[in-house]
Amino acid sequence: MTPRPVLEFWFDFGSNYSYLAAMRIDRLAARAGVQVAWKPFLLGPVFRALGWPSSPSVVQREKGRYVWRDMEREAARLGLPFRRPSQFPRAALLAHRVAVAADGQPWLPEFCQALFLRNFAADQDIEDMEAVSEVLSAVGQHSGVWIERAQQEDVKLRLRRQTEEAQARGIFGAPTFFVADEMFWGNDRLEQALAWATGEAGRPER
Predict the structure, then answer these.
(1) How many distinct structural domains can be found in the chain?
(2) Organism's domain of life (predicted)?
(3) 1 lies in some domain
């Protein structure tokens, strides 16, 4: 059997455009016959390495105004619920560690989507242990088991290394998609990345 092409989905739970991508990537990938590798990482260290103290949407007020209006339009266009978070960006270190610990688990996409909805549709906290526990329970998992697993040193190290890998590969924002070494940035590049993965996209000569 020919292996399915793989699309890497690099995301941060605090990223608004990652929310839009997370809510539709599995459906579109399944239709295209592409396997998705969910890759949580921390945008904060990436931004600081680039000289930004926070998200560019926060640092640049004009860009921030545009982004939230764009989010309203895009969420409506995609049929997704949206409420501008009262806190942005929201930290979600424990949630990221759970997502790293759950790499390969069939419920990982559902867990991630539930967290994104909590942040960008319900305007609720996603950082503290109670919030993460509620989401784990909502997707049918034993929250205590996974939170304990997420706090082990090997998981913390894996998230740190995954964030370092994101920097090393040139990631500067989220969501970012990779097909092998070909990079696509932004929710509006998801379809193009999938087409590239299946070989349907026109590829320029190099």
Answers:
(1) 1
(2) Bacteria
(3) no
Residue of 85, 89, 107, 88 lying closest to 98 (CA atoms): 107
Question: 206 in helix, strand or coil?
Answer: coil
In this structure, is residue 150 part of a structural domain?
yes
**Any domain includes 204:** no
Q: For residue 206, is it within any domain?
A: no
Cis? peptide before 56, omega within 30° of 0: no
pLDDT in tens, the chain (206 residues): 678 899 999 999 999 999 999 999 999 999 999 999 999 999 999 999 999 888 888 888 998 899 999 999 999 999 999 999 999 999 999 999 999 999 999 999 999 999 999 999 999 999 999 999 999 999 999 999 999 999 999 999 999 999 999 999 999 999 999 999 999 999 999 999 999 999 987 665 55
First to last CA, the chain: 30
Domain that holds residue 114: 6-198
β-pair partners for 9: 38, 177
What is this structure's pTM?
A: 0.94
CA torsion sign for 23, 105, 177, 14 is positive
Token pair of 193 as six digits: 């990345």
